[in-house]
């Protein structure tokens, strides 16, 4: 049994990783770990996740109320979305929120990560939908996140960032790395003329590999809420605003141009 101090050190280490990998800027992002059904460790608000030490880490209850925090530190207001994950997914032991550049760009553009382009992403990650926009620090984000929790282990947060969760801290962080790597590969392959997607038969073979491996978490290999409930990945990359039937097919050049335009608009650039 790992003691709380060791877990706090692990949280600080993961904070340094997400900071050093440019997944957060300034004081962005937050991390939490479940100790038991009513005790959770979490990162504080208003500090860089790249420079934390164990005394920074706060402890909260299942409602997000402070159990213990050193003077000058308090939990992030975004702990609400972490608590919603734990409430709806008792198998989850850790949650990570960050703003990785490529994944967040897709979130800003309103494009989920659903295209099956590499075996590792299909097997380990599955699809990454977009939870509709919610005002930061309010219950809007957890409320809009909730419907995705039974089906996925990672989501993009519209115009905000990404959220991943898993059985333990390292697994939750690795899932965030996988989301960002997948997003980067998808974006860059579009610059090269468009990715070659796996067909349905290939995807089903990859799903069967996952089932045989007995990997934890939720995945479209087990249950898919999209289309016919069989093959989530073939929903394609145009599920803008979660309405694939209303989305016209775009050329790769048009898609890249739209992503770039929307990202620049969010950044206040012309």
Word description of this protein:
The chain has 270 residues and is an alpha+beta fold. The chain has helices at residues 4-20, 79-88, 101-109, 119-125, 140-145, 169-191, 200-213, 252-266, and strands at residues 30-36, 39-42, 58-60, 66-68, 94-98, 130-131, 154-157, 161-166. The chain has an 8-stranded mixed β-sheet, sandwiched between helices. A hairpin with a 5-residue loop joins β3 (58-60) and β4.
What features would you highlight for this structure?
single chain; 270 residues; alpha+beta; eight-stranded mixed sheet
% residues in beta strands: 5-15%
Cα-atom radius of gyration: 18 Å
Shape: globular
Strand order of the largest sheet: 4-3-2-1-5-8-7-6
Mean pLDDT: 87
- Number-wise, the strands total 8
Give the topology.
Elements: H1 4-20, E1 30-36, E2 39-42, E3 58-60, E4 66-68, H2 79-88, E5 94-98, H3 101-109, H4 119-125, E6 130-131, H5 140-145, E7 154-157, E8 161-166, H6 169-191, H7 200-213, H8 252-266
Parallel strand pairs: 6-7
Antiparallel strand pairs: 1-2, 1-5, 2-3, 3-4, 5-8, 7-8
Produce a short descriptive summary.
This protein is of the alpha+beta class. The chain contains eight helices and eight strands.
């Amino acid at each position: 049994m790992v003691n709380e101090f060791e877990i706090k050190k692990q949280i600080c280490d993961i904070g340094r990783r997400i900071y050093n990998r440019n997944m957060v800027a300034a004081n962005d992002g937050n991390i939490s770990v479940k100790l038991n059904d009513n005790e959770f460790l979490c990162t504080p608000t208003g500090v860089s996740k790249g420079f934390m030490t164990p005394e920074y880490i706060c402890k909260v209850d299942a409602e997000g109320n402070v159990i213990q925090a050193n003077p000058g530190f308090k939990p992030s207001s975004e702990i609400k979305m972490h608590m919603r994950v734990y409430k709806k997914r008792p198998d989850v032991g850790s949650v990570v929120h960050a703003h990785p550049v490529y994944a967040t760009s897709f979130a800003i553009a309103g494009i989920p990560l659903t295209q099956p382009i590499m075996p590792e992403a299909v097997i380990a990650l599955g699809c990454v939908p977009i939870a509709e926009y919610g005002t930061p620090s309010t219950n809007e984000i957890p409320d809009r996140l909730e419907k995705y929790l039974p089906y996925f282990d990672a989501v993009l947060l519209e115009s905000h960032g990404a959220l991943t969760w898993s059985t333990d801290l390292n697994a939750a962080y690795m899932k965030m790395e996988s989301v960002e790597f997948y997003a980067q590969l998808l974006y860059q392959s579009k610059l090269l003329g468009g990715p070659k997607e796996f067909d349905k038969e290939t995807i089903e073979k990859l799903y069967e590999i996952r089932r045989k491996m007995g990997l934890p978490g939720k995945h479209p290999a087990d249950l898919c809420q999209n289309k016919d409930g069989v093959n989530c990945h073939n929903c394609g990359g145009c599920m803008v605003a979660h309405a694939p039937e209303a989305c016209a097919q775009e050329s790769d050049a048009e898609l890249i141009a739209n992503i770039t335009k929307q990202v620049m608009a969010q950044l206040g650039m012309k």
